[in-house]
Amino acid sequence: PAAPLTFAMLQWTRVSDGSSVFWGNATLGGRLSHVLEGHNVTQVMPLEPPAAWEQQRGMVADYLSYFSGIVQVFSKERPLNYTQSLCCHLGCCLFPNGTARSFYNVSLNGTAFLTFHVPSATWELRWPLRDPLATFAQRELMKYTETTHNLQHFLNTTCVDILRAQSPQREKQRGRSHAPLVLGLILGVSAVVGMAVGIFLCTGGSC
Questions:
Q1: 44-102 per-position pLDDT tens digit
Q2: Are 25 and 34 in contact (CB under 8 A)?
Q3: Other CB atoms closer than 10 Å to residue 137's CB: what's the count?
Q4: Is 207 part of a structural domain of the chain?
């Protein structure tokens, strides 16, 4: 069978000695669309006009700056003597028969950690259920609309619409699909911030 069309984002967050490092990318149909290095997001595909892109890019930078500040504050109270590495992989696939599948998987230090179940907008544990760190992070992510229902809407609806707009018969509508691409990137970053803050608060303290 023909391969599905996919929009996917990868983001890595590394926390060490009170500082945070971010990097990642987004691909649309196997082609690089965005690159994240530090607090800077670059649009590789010319998907949005310069003015609109600058506004969206600034929103992503604000999220990352907020997270970095949180890490610096809490590192003074709960010093971390080792590195935490968080990886998020999210996106959607559109198959030739019109069906779609969305996903959001999280690993911590190279081990499967949490998965977002898109149909129910719930976070599911991948580490042992008794692990306090995973349980705490799951509970924190379930508190916010940005990391539950907003994320569900992007993955289950907006992301799939982006892919459907790539078909030749909808060529004239392609321009309408670009802005949600960046919305997805922002939501992805938002979820990472929520996740990583929860992990950081729990590590070295009481969950």
A1: 887 667 887 787 778 777 777 877 776 676 666 666 666 778 888 888 999 988 899 99
A2: yes
A3: 30
A4: no
Average of per-residue pLDDT values in the chain: 75
Residue 31 inside a domain? The answer is yes
Element (H, E) at 132: helix 132-141
Looking at the DSSP bridge assignments, the partners of residue 87 are: 12, 107
Q: Give the contacts of 138 (CB within 8 A, at least 6 positions apart).
A: 114, 123, 124, 125
Rounded CA separation 93/100 (Å): 5
The sign one gets for the Cα dihedral 40, 45, 47, 51 is positive
Close Cβ partners of 159 (under 8 Å, ≥ 6 residues apart): 7, 91, 92, 102, 180, 184
Query: Residue 61's domain is classified under what CATH number?
Result: 3.30.500.10
Contact assessment for residue 103 and residue 47, using Cβ atoms and an 8 Å cutoff: no
Q: The whole model's pTM is what?
A: 0.78
Cα dihedral angle (60, 64, 70, 76), rounded to 10 degrees?
-170
